[in-house]
Amino acid sequence: MFNFDEARFLKIQAGAVHLAPRIDQEIGAAIAAGASNLFFLGTGGVAYLMEPAVQLLHRRSGFPVYKDYPAELVLTGSANLTAKSIVVMPSLSGTTKESVAMLAKLQEVGARIITLVGHADTPLGQGGTPALVNFAEDDTSSESFYIQSLLVALSVLKARGEIDNYDALVAELATAPAALVAAKKAFEPKAEEFARIIAGSDYHMFTGAGNMWPEALYYATCILEEMQWIRTRPVHASDFFHGPLELIEPGVSLILFRGEDACDPLAERVVQFARQYTDKLTVISTADYCPKSLSPELRALLSPAIMATLMERLSAHLEVMRDHPLVTRRYYKRVAY
Question: What are the residue boundaries of the SIS domain, all occurrences included (predicted)?
Fold first, then answer.
């Protein structure tokens, strides 16, 4: 595959899967000790990567789960954030400014803080109780964080007796790194074609439903806007028919991410409408590339990670095609803000 280190990728994703026992131990112990709720507190793109886990718990668990912006929460506090809260704080660098500020507040409150980081010798790597470390870089971190947050959600369900096949799912997750590579290989012959679609316009609308929406939002904002300086308009498929549909006309690029969860009918509704009014509808579906060896349940749960791994292949071609490396920035970590 083009510009891809398979051994490095497999090592990083396996590292995420191997955190399962530690995550389960920490979540189980916290809930057994009387934890009252769970907060996912990420900043920027990594917060989007937590959203499928938040969705899963909102829909399958009675345990109170919250997602908030650390930059706001550090200013306002929350009546629900207490010493009985479990807080999951992801940060690849371990140095994210807003999250580091939030860490100090959480320590004052006395919450149980689980940090998910890529580097141990950092403020968040030192400040977690515990800090769970799995080294990754930008091109491998999305899948890793999707897997880790899924493990958090599954452990909550297990601890509360809300799932009966935790062990089977976690055992099957051991095959996920290889399945992700297989998906990449299946997508590779079309990656350049899809990259040309992105490169062919300076504006794209992105949409998705269910656990595909966070990945659509992430790819539009954190890859195309941040790393390629391409303007995008992300919109949830549930909101598409409440305003944004009026932007659709010939020549407008609409890119739809489709997964395999229960919300896919919302994506199909967008397809049926948009194909009538724009000649630039692009649909990318995980079902076309994900190995059939995975169970239907795990395919649905892993759809965001699968889409992320496909988009890494697209991006590898896109940065070369546009002569714009993904590491190029105008402002990020270059100027004060």
Answer: 27-167
| Backbone torsions φ then ψ of 119, nearest 5 degrees | -140, 125
Distances (CA, A) of 332 to 98, 215, 324: 14, 21, 15
Dihedral angle computed from the Cα positions of residues 74, 80, 83 and 86, in that order, rounded to the nearest 10 degrees: -90
User: Superfamily assignment of 6-173 in CATH?
Assistant: Glucose-6-phosphate isomerase like protein; domain 1 (3.40.50.10490)
Q: 176-321 maps to which CATH number?
A: 3.40.50.10490
pLDDT digits 0-9 by tens, 227-271: 999 999 999 999 999 999 999 999 999 999 999 999 999 999 999
The pLDDT score that the predictor gives to residue 333 is 86
What is the chain's alpha carbon radius of gyration, rounded to the nearest angstrom? Answer: 20
Q: In sequence order, which residues have a C-beta less than 8 Å from that of residue 104 and are 6 or more positions away?
A: none
Phi-psi region at 3: left, alpha or beta (left = phi > 0; alpha = psi -120 to 50):
left
CA 92/CA 16 separation, integer angstroms = 13
* Below-70 pLDDT ranges, the chain: none
The token duo for 139 is: 């091109």
What is d(CA 146, CA 13) in angstroms, rounded to the nearest whole number?
10
Torsion over CA of 114, 174, 146 and 253, rounded to 10 degrees?
Answer: 170
CB 303 within 8 A of CB 260: yes
Q: Please name the residue that has the structure tokens 């990420």.
A: 42
φ, ψ (nearest 5 deg) of residue 114 = -110, 110
**Structural domain boundaries of the chain?**
6-173, 176-321
pLDDT, tens digit, 9 for 90 and up, residues 142-153: 999 999 999 999
- Would the pTM of this model clear 0.90, i.e. be above it? yes
How far apart, in whole angstroms, are the C-alpha atoms of residue 155 and residue 111? 18
For residue 314 the two structure tokens come to: 């697209």
